[in-house]
Amino acid sequence: MIVIADGQTSVDISGWEPPERDIYEEKHRNPTTYQYDSERALRFELRLRTAIVQAAKDLQHSAASFASFKKSRCNAAYWIRTENGGFQMRHDVLPSEAIRDIFSNGRAYAFECATAIIIVLYKAVLETIGDQKFNRLFADLYLYSWEVDSDLRLITIAEKMPTYSGDILYFKNPDVDPEWMEWQGENVVKLGSDSYFGHGIGITNAAGIIAKLNKHRKKGSTESAYLIDQVTYPNYVYLYEAASSRVPISQTALAWLPPEARGRIVVRIGGRTAIYA
Q1: Which of 115, 135, 116, 112 is nearest to 125 (CA)?
Q2: DSSP letter string, 183-231
Q3: By C-alpha distance, which of 204, 199, 215, 209 is closest to 67?
Q4: CB 151 within 8 A of CB 178
Q5: For 11-49, what is each residue's pLDDT tens digit?
Q6: Full 3-state SS string of 109-139
Q7: Which residues form the signal peptide (predicted)?
Q8: Are 173 and 211 in contact (CB under 8 A)?
Q9: For 264, which DSSP code?
Q10: 154 contacts 147 by C-beta, under 8 angstroms
C-alpha cells in the first residue's frame, strides 16, 4: 500500500501515463507499506522507473554490442577505456552528451551486462531530471558495474520480495562452463510482469534468459540457471532531493532505506547499501 506522509492513501492518477499508473497500482495493491514524503516524491520514483524501462529498450535498439570487460570498447571522443574494461568520461565533454552518445552511436561500443545496467540507469536519470541537473550531479562519470557505482546510491536487498518495473535483478548460472565465464549470470532490468532486458540476450521472459544461460554450462551439468532472490534500485529519495537542488542534501535522504529494511542487517559501502535478512 502507498501512503503519503500526511496520511493520504489515495492519489488521483487519472491524468498519468499508463506505465506510471500501472506501477502505482501494482505497488498500492501490495500489502507492504510504501511511504513517501509527498506526492511529488512518489511521482518522481514512478517517472524514473518508467524511464529506466524505456532506457533499457533504447539500449536494446542502439546497436551497442555485448563484450567481456577484457574486450570492451567505447567512443574515444567521449570516454577513456580503463585497464579493467570500464569507461571513464573525458573531462572536456558534458556528461549528458557522453551518455547519449552510447545510444546514438552504439556501434562504437561494446560492454558487459553489468556495465549495461549502469548505462541504462544513468540514461533514465538524465531523461527524468534534464541535462542541466544531470551535468551538475554527475560531472565525473565512470561506467563499470552497478556493484561499484556510488553516484546513484544503489540499494540492494538480498532476499525474496516484490519487484516492479525498473528494478534490477540477477539470473545466476551456478554451473557455468569455465571457458564462458561471462555467462555466469545475467544482470537484467525488469520491464513488466515477465519481461526482462539483459544486454547480450535482449528482451525476453525468464524462461528465455534461463535457456540462454543453460547453453553455457559445464558439460553434463544438471543444475539450471535461476533468478536469485535479490533486487537493486537507486535511492529514489536521494535522487529526488538532489534533482530538487536541495544543497546540502538532507541526512534523511542520504540515510533513506526502504520499509523492507526494517529489522534486517544493513551494510553501507561508499554510496551503496546492501540489506540482508
Answers
A1: 135
A2: GSEEEEEEEETTEEEETTTEEE-HHHHHHHHHTTBPTT-----EE-S-E
A3: 199
A4: no
A5: 889 889 999 999 999 999 999 888 898 999 999 999 999
A6: CEECHHHHHHHHHHHHHHHHHCHHHHHHHCC
A7: none
A8: no
A9: S
A10: no
Task: Report the b/e string of 114-126 with b at 16+ CB within 10 A.
Answer: bbbbbbbbbbbbb
Residue type, 154: L
Name every residue whose Cβ is closer than 8 Å to that of residue 44 and which is 6 or more positions away in sequence.
128, 236, 239, 240, 243
The conformation of residue 147, written as its DSSP 8-state character, comes to T
Q: Which residue type is seen at 156?
A: T
Q: All 3 cell numbers of residue 188?
A: 537484467
> CA–CA separation, 197 vs 190, rounded Å?
7
* pLDDT recorded at residue 146: 78
Element (H, E) at 23: helix 18-29
Amino acid at 63: A
C-alpha cell at 115: 556495465
| Mean per-residue pLDDT pooled into runs of 10, the chain (277 residues) | 80 90 93 90 96 98 96 98 97 98 98 96 97 93 86 91 96 95 96 97 98 95 96 93 72 66 71 73
Residue 176: beta bridge partners? Answer: 217
pLDDT value, residue 150: 80
